């Protein structure tokens, strides 16, 4: 049993992980929030209001904590001051392990909305440059497989989001000539399951904490889509030069936006997300490692085709 602090613990992904940790019945869990939570917090865990600009106060809160899991929203803190202060406070308090707010691709190239991840990664490398002062892992499950179920919700808390793989309308967007680009898809439930195992793991955490639920090419995703939806997908092909110029020449685009994004910024960000995912996948950004798979070889991940067939059957 260890004491775990979950920063940004009222977020959707954080709540999935918290529920999984609570279900183990093993740990003392503290949820860190900027303000009093407007959601129901399980009675067997505590929440604490914190000021991420107060490193001394944070260190006091983290006293006796073994592991910090951060789910702080990157877009709300462009310079990542909150996470950097959290890291400093964790080191001061003697925290053993830290997981920054990641939970996506292994690289952030062409994805400016995730620039903050790079800043936090650099900071962790900097504080550990001379010696390891805090053990950390970059938890990277690729894209949530749940998003391919849009608009159907497949997890308790995480809202469905659209992607360039539109199973609802049986269509997708690919870069012409790059149908073999790799994407990793992992369910939210499997992410939470692996994190629960990682917290219990007695050895050293891998720095690159890849979680590979399903490793698929664009072509394979399209083939799965055709089988589970009973109809071949309409494939729209775009050109690299257009994408590099910031142009998405397609007949459709994403419409559902993350709740952290204002409506005023939504249209431009959604186009940027489509372009960014397409370009970044050409550079292997979504082909995550299998470091955690190797640590937990007996863990059974949800198969993409089985998961999606269960979602879409009869629809």
Automatic annotation (TrEMBL):
Keyword Oxidoreductase: yes
Record-given protein name: NmrA-like domain-containing protein
Pfam families, per database record: NmrA (PF05368)
InterPro entries listed in its UniProt record: NAD(P)-bd_dom_sf (IPR036291), NmrA-like (IPR008030), NmrA/Isoflavone_reductase-like (IPR051609)
Protein family (similarity comment): Belongs to the NmrA-type oxidoreductase family. Isoflavone reductase subfamily.
Keyword Electron transport on entry: no
UniProt keyword annotations, A-Z: NADP, Oxidoreductase
Organism: Dactylellina haptotyla (strain CBS 200.50) (Nematode-trapping fungus)
NmrA-like domain location: 3-243
Domain of life: Eukaryota
GO molecular function, one term: oxidoreductase activity
